[in-house]
Amino acid sequence: MLKKLKQAVFEANMELPRRKLITYTWGNVSARDPGTGYIVIKPSGVDYDGMKAEDMVVCDAEGKVIEGSYRPSSDTPTHVELYRRYPQIGGIVHTHSPEATAWAQACREIPLYGTTHADYFFGPVPCARGLTDEEINGAYEKNTGLVIIETIEQRGMDPMHVPGILCANHGVFTWGKDAAEAVHNAVVLEELARMAARTEQLRPMAPPAPDSLRDRHFYRKHGANAYYGQGKDTPRQEG
């Protein structure tokens, strides 16, 4: 079942250690099949060194296992909530990548200091509020997803324009149209966190980049009038 999607999710998961975003088993990637609504996700606690595409677990839209020899990631309920609320999301990543997680542990959003950030995120990378004791002691992973959604809704954000979030005292979630894009955004977010920390070391009271610069850089890559890169209508050069 969903052999191609399992392979894509496996490859996306394997990109995390290659990009130094995880240590041991500290992360997971999932993707949603648009036809069935089923979710393919990394198995819980399985070492990356011996993991195979066929080890990926297929769950229904509620997180119930449909196919697989292993239990799905313990973070599956978080992924389920995000997929349920935002049908435009096709892939999700969770990591404890050190630079971004340091901001999460400080319970701080990552300010938009420059154009590299603006190329990918239309504004600061938000940090969701900490969970209450009741939320932690209850359906913890589901509540993590609900707090992420709460943050997106309260800020009036388009989740595809701000494709990631920090969870206070916890770690990082990113997403995209598919698993590969979600991983790409996780890699970018880690670099943005590193650059922002360095910026504040050099200039502790550094101001955010101007909105006009943010808008120019974000919309030249995103939206109907984007012009960055080689579009389908790019004329072919002879010679």
Tell me what the structure shows:
This protein is of the alpha+beta class. It has one domain: L-fuculose-1-phosphate Aldolase. Helix content is 38%, strand content 13%. The chain has helices spanning 3-18, 76-85, 98-105, 115-118, 133-137, 140-155, 179-202, 211-219; strands spanning 27-32, 39-41, 57-59, 65-67, 91-95, 127-128, 164-167, 171-176. An eight-stranded mixed sheet has the order 4-3-2-1-5-8-7-6, with helices on both faces. A hairpin with a 6-residue loop joins β1 (27-32) and β2. α1 runs parallel beside α7 (179-202) and α2 (76-85) runs parallel beside α6. It is globular, with a radius of gyration of 18 Å. It starts with a helix and ends in a 20-residue tail after the last helix.
Give the helices and strands, then pairings.
Blueprint (H helix, E strand, L loop, with lengths): L2 H16 L8 E6 L6 E3 L15 E3 L5 E3 L8 H10 L5 E5 L2 H8 L9 H4 L8 E2 L4 H5 L2 H16 L8 E4 L3 E6 L2 H24 L8 H9 L20
Parallel strand pairs: 6-7
Antiparallel strand pairs: 1-2, 1-5, 2-3, 3-4, 5-8, 7-8
Helix pairs in contact: 1-7, 2-6, 3-7
Question: Any descriptors?
Answer:
239 residues, disordered C terminus, 8 helices, 13% strand, L-fuculose-1-phosphate Aldolase
Individual helix count? 8
User: By helix and strand content, what is the structural category?
Assistant: alpha+beta
Q: What is the tally of beta strands? A: 8
How large is the radius of gyration?
Answer: 18 Å
Query: So what's the overall shape?
Result: globular
- The CATH C-level class name: Alpha Beta
SSE string, helices as H and strands as E: HEEEEHEHHEHHEEHH
Beta-strand portion reads 5-15%
Low-confidence stretches: 235-239
